[in-house]
């Protein structure tokens, strides 16, 4: 059963988003449990990664260049488009907050489900998360008309819980457990890990449903904006890394599109404006369509190679 669900995980992620939209009360009730699921995801994913190789990938300058592209370049491009199309300050604040947001901690598990190694995605996730408060502070300074503050104490606590703690635990596990046994255990955990990701589109789309019920036309506009933002993220990641090979470009594209919006909300909260939560709900559908799109590209590439 786990193998079957894991095999069709890309489609089921989208289905989970529709279920959350259809049952907003259940979706909202799942929201408080997402941090616990996030911790489990990071722990299970990191167990399958060599921590020394991960540290080397994190300190590699290319990972920090990616973090700048992820947080900085996307903010600049979205701001230009937003100002050009006359977006309100509230919408610009919400959109640029998403741009500043680091990669979703579940992204390495999603990347693995598509068929790529999660090491690079994990390095990108960590560097973009470390750069997030800087980008968020700059964005709020430029756009917010009121005084604001970032809860950096909560941010540091979450870094310790969701990143550094699991990394230390994983390093200890690799020291104590033989590699052949650990590889067999992680093979089973990997199937369970991707199923945990289903909770995120389910738990976040309910926020968008409230906007849909109160203002249908604006909700549809918000959905188009969400698709435009995700397409932009995906294309920037793909184009920036295409010269390094298709595999790395696809990993960068998926990683750029998945954003840890809950972490941003915990750090900045109400300073992000009233449209932030509806926007992150609208983003769930285009975000989880990306793995399906990448799988389509990979199948097309394999068919082209076979014909050649």
Task: Tell me about this structure.
- The structure is a single chain.
- This protein is mainly alpha-helical and 308 residues long.
- The chain contains 16 helices and no strands.
- α2 packs antiparallel against α16 and α13 packs antiparallel against α14.
- The longest helix has 32 residues.
- The protein is globular.
- The mean pLDDT is 83.
Provide the descriptors you would attach to this structure in a database record.
308 residues; 16 helices
Average pLDDT, rounded to a whole number, is: 83
> Main beta sheet, described?
none
SS elements, strand count: 0
| Radius of gyration, whole Å | 19 Å
Helix content: over 70%
First-last Cα distance: 37 Å
Q: What percent of residues are in strands? A: under 5%
């Amino acid at each position: 059963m786990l193998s079957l669900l894991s095999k069709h995980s890309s489609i089921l992620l989208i289905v989970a988003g529709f279920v959350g939209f259809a049952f907003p009360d259940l979706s909202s009730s799942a929201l408080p449990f997402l941090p616990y699921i996030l911790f489990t995801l990071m722990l299970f994913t990191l167990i399958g990664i060599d921590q020394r190789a991960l540290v080397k990938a994190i300190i590699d300058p290319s990972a920090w260049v990616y973090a700048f592209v992820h947080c900085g370049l996307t903010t600049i491009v979205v701001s230009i488009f937003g100002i050009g199309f006359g977006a309100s300050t509230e919408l610009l604040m919400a959109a640029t907050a998403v741009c500043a947001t680091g990669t979703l901690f579940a992204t390495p598990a999603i990347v693995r489900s598509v068929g790529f190694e999660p090491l690079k995605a994990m390095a990108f996730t960590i560097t973009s998360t470390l750069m997030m408060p800087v980008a968020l502070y700059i964005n709020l300074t430029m756009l917010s008309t009121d005084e604001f503050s970032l809860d950096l104490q909560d941010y540091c606590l979450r870094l310790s819980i969701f990143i550094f703690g699991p990394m230390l635990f994983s390093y200890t596990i690799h020291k104590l457990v033989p590699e052949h046994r650990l590889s067999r255990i992680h093979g089973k955990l990997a199937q369970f890990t991707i199923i945990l990701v289903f909770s995120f589109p389910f738990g976040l789309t309910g926020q968008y449903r409230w906007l849909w019920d109160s203002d249908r036309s604006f909700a549809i506009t918000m959905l188009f904006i969400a698709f435009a933002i995700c397409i932009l993220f995906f294309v920037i990641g793909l184009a920036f890394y295409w010269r390094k090979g298709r595999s790395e470009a696809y990993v960068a594209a998926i990683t750029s599109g998945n954003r840890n919006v809950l972490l941003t909300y915990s750090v900045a909260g109400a300073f992000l404006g009233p449209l932030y939560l509806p926007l992150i709900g609208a983003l769930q559908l285009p975000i989880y369509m990306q793995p399906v799109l990448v799988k389509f590209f990979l199948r097309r590439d394999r068919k082209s190679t076979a014909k050649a």
